[in-house]
Amino acid sequence: MAGVKVRESESFENALRRFKRITERAGILSDLKKHQRYEKPSEKKKKKLMTAVRKIKKMRSMSQNS
User: Fold this and answer.
1) Where do the domains of the chain lie?
2) For residues 46 and 57, what is the distance between their CA atoms, to the nearest angstrom?
3) What's the rounded Cα separation, in Å, for the pair 64 and 29?
4) What is the 3 state secondary structure string of 32-46?
5) Cα–Cα distance for residue pair 4/18, rounded to 1 Å
6) How far apart (Å, rounded) are the C-alpha atoms in residues 66 and 44?
7) Interatomic CA distance for residues 61 and 53, integer angstroms
8) What secondary structure letter does DSSP report for 37?
9) Phi, psi (5° rounding) for residue 30?
């Protein structure tokens, strides 16, 4: 579990910013979103395929622009 100890001379906003950074690095929010609802294995496979296709298209367009 991620936690932040507020330093003596630190403002609440700075502590909150540190907490958000720590949770983002730990992947807590993305994991929470992933587990909010059940995703069928076929949906997972389809999503993974679409991301791969998008990545390939992006790489091709970048290589053509160079």
Assistant:
1) 1-35, 39-66
2) 17
3) 36
4) HHHCCCCCCHHHHHH
5) 7
6) 34
7) 12
8) S
9) -65, -35
* C-alpha gyration radius of the chain: 19
Kindly report the pTM of this predicted structure: 0.51
Count CB neighbours of 65 within 10 A. Answer: 6
Alpha carbons within 13 angstroms on the beta-carbon side of residue 7 total 8
Contact criterion met (CB below 8 Å) for 22 and 2: yes
Average per-residue pLDDT in the chain?
90
- In tens, the pLDDT along 18-64 reads 999 999 999 888 888 888 999 999 999 999 999 999 999 999 998 88
Tokens of 21: 């950074």
Residues 56, 53: Cα–Cα separation, whole Å: 5
Classified as helix, coil or strand, 57 is helix
Q: How far apart are CA 22 and CA 20, in angstroms?
A: 5
